[in-house]
From TrEMBL:
<dbReference type="InterPro" id="IPR016181">
    <property type="entry name" value="Acyl_CoA_acyltransferase"/>
</dbReference>
<protein>
    <recommendedName>
        <fullName>GNAT family N-acetyltransferase</fullName>
    </recommendedName>
</protein>
<dbReference type="Pfam" id="PF13523">
    <property type="entry name" value="Acetyltransf_8"/>
</dbReference>
Amino acid sequence: EQMCSAYQDIINNPHHHAYVIEQNNELLALVELYSLKHDELLAAAYEVMPNDTGMHILLAPNTRPKRHFSFEIM
């Protein structure tokens, strides 16, 4: 329930975006991008420049390790 609520907030926020990355119907990753100047916690911590962007990358469990996989996702 908390997860659904959090992602509903992201969907409704024009400064925060979430992308699901799939290949051949296999979930590979969830990537979130967000504007730091619209993030109250981060904006209070340091001087945010106008185009500063935050990123979260969550990789799906993988039974077939692939070298540089996270780099390729980015």
